[in-house]
Structures are given as structure tokens and as C-alpha cells.
């Protein structure tokens, strides 16, 4: 009997969650595809129709989490009236809330991603195309409403924002503050700085200097965390002065 699309989607989600549970208990290397299939009550061969490798299972987890976060943000009442910063934060916060229950697994999965350098290049980060599309739409809406000045590099900036989301996850995984207040503050400050820069037109000038430099320095700051909040506070004060 042919499996319906609804049942396929249900199986897809069930297999991912089963893999999350097993890998959290036994680790990535200590969990086999056969174990996942049997725990999810699907055939040993059937699981490969959904996910050919364990690595694909891990990337599918992030793709699903990002899709769920974007969908949740879209459902938020009155979100079309939010400022650009509020809309960006809504997506980030929705994602972190969705990842919270699986935080231990997310840490394990991040280690796997770091051991697979090709995942860090171009469009291969899980869920990056959807994030970029979402952020382009937000930037266009803000530009149309006059909230920010005309931005000629919206696709490039949206791609950097998608990379930024993964930087936020890395920062969040290292955050030991109560209720992750440091992460909340970092996201608020960093997106606030970005929006101020967009209003002043500085982002276009920075992107002309090369997105790779911006991306690499952002990744370093997100991972190290040393002085990041102080740096963002300083940048916001400086840009606030430019705006006035």
C-alpha cells in the first residue's frame, strides 16, 4: 500500500525525534540506523528511503527546527506590524525555544557539523535557504515601509543573517547564565546594531568590503564570546550617535 504524503511527513518527523532521543543517550557513533528504525517502528530498509545516512538525519533535524520556527513566527498575531528588529528576533527566539528541549543533542550535532567542514560552506548549512528567503522578505518589507534606507545587497545580507543564526546557536550552547540571559542580551544588542546600521546606510558600505570578512569575524566573536556584549554596546552607542 502506498504511503500518503501526510503519513510520510509523520514518519519523517518521528524518525528524526527518535534519532534525537537515541543519539542523546548513546552518542552519534553509538547509535545505528537499525536501532533508530526499530525504535521508530519502521523497516530497516524503509528508514533509508527517508534518510540515507545518520548525517542526513542530523541536518534534517535543523532543517525541521528552522522550518518550525519560521512557521511559528509567521503565526504570531500582529507580527506584520513589528519593527524589523522585532521580526528578526521573533525568528531567532522561536528557534531557540524549539531547540531547548533537545539542547544536549544540539551540542552533539554541532560537534558533528564541525567535523564536516563542507557543511559550513555556501548554502550547505541546514535550513539556510529558508532563513535567507525569510530574511530577504523582512528586509524588503522594512525597505518598502521606509524603516531602513534602500539596501542593494539584500540577498547577501540575508545570507549573512542566516549564518548569524548558527552563530547564535553556538553562543547559546556555551551560555551558562541564568535562563540564558546573556544570549537574550547578545541577540537584542547585535540585531539592534544591525538595524541602526541599516537605517544609516552603513551596511551597504560594509558589504562592499567583502561578506567573507564580516562572516569570519562574526563567527569568531560568536564562538569566543570574550567581550562581545561590551563590543555590541559600544557599537550601538556609536551608531546611535550617527543616526542622530
TrEMBL record:
Gene3D superfamilies hit by this protein: Tetracycline Repressor, domain 2
InterPro entries associated with the record: DNA-bd_HTH_TetR-type_CS, Homeodomain-like_sf, HTH-type_TetR-like_transc_reg, HTH_TetR, Tet_transcr_reg_TetR-rel_C_sf, TetR_C_23
Pfam families: TetR_C_23, TetR_N
Cited PROSITE patterns: HTH_TETR_1, HTH_TETR_2
Keywords of the record: DNA-binding, Repressor, Transcription, Transcription regulation
Residues in HTH tetR-type domain copies: 9-69
DNA-binding region, residue intervals: 32-51
Superkingdom of the organism of origin: Bacteria
The name this protein goes by in its record: TetR/AcrR family transcriptional regulator
Organism: Janthinobacterium kumbetense
